[in-house]
Design goal:
Elements: H1 2-6, H2 8-49, H3 56-83, H4 99-119, H5 128-147
């Protein structure tokens, strides 16, 4: 046992060397197959390289068409950027921005929505008096429609393309 402890490093080196020699010998046997595969691929590449273009004019026309499309696309994108000068609320938030940018975006978004709603004079959610006024307005419109001969119940009655009741509908 003392012998193993004293010479353990040499024994492990010997085992590793033997394994390396064995793996190298088996790898050398596989080299001709790899060489044959590479030569086959090189032959296919050379055969493809030697082919002539079937219709070089069509290919050149398509390349020019692709270039024209790419140039038009660039012009459209430039024009779109000129017409719509969008400034993001916070740059660098999407798609995977840092958490401090997301928090800043959330605060600015809430401010922007509040400013939008204030500019529209929204006045907050409706209360009971707003609902009563809307109900009265609807009832007034229905009564006016009935007074002038229109019946809201005849919504499915036959009409002309100008939205006039036909004789059958009347």
């Amino acid at each position: 046992m003392d012998f193993l402890k004293q010479h353990l490093f040499l024994i492990l080196c010997g085992v590793g060397a033997a394994a390396g020699i064995g793996l190298a010998a088996t790898g050398m046997k596989a080299m001709p197959k790899v060489k044959a595969d590479l030569e086959g691929a090189a032959g296919v590449y050379k055969s493809l390289e030697s082919l002539k273009l079937v219709n070089p004019q069509n290919i050149e026309d398509e390349k020019q068409r692709i270039d024209a499309i790419l140039a038009d696309r660039a012009k459209v994108l430039d024009r779109a950027k000129q017409l719509y000068r969008y400034e993001p609320l916070v740059a660098g938030v999407f798609p995977n921005g840092p958490s401090d940018k997301r928090i800043e975006f959330r605060a600015k978004y809430n401010e922007a929505i509040r400013a939008l709603l204030d500019s529209l004079s929204w006045g907050g959610p409706p209360d009971a008096s707003d609902l009563d006024r809307a109900k009265d307005r609807i009832e007034t419109e229905v009564a006016a429609a009935k007074q002038f001969g229109a019946d809201p119940a005849d919504a499915g009655a036959p009409r002309t393309p100008a939205d006039v009741l036909t004789k059958a509908g009347a």
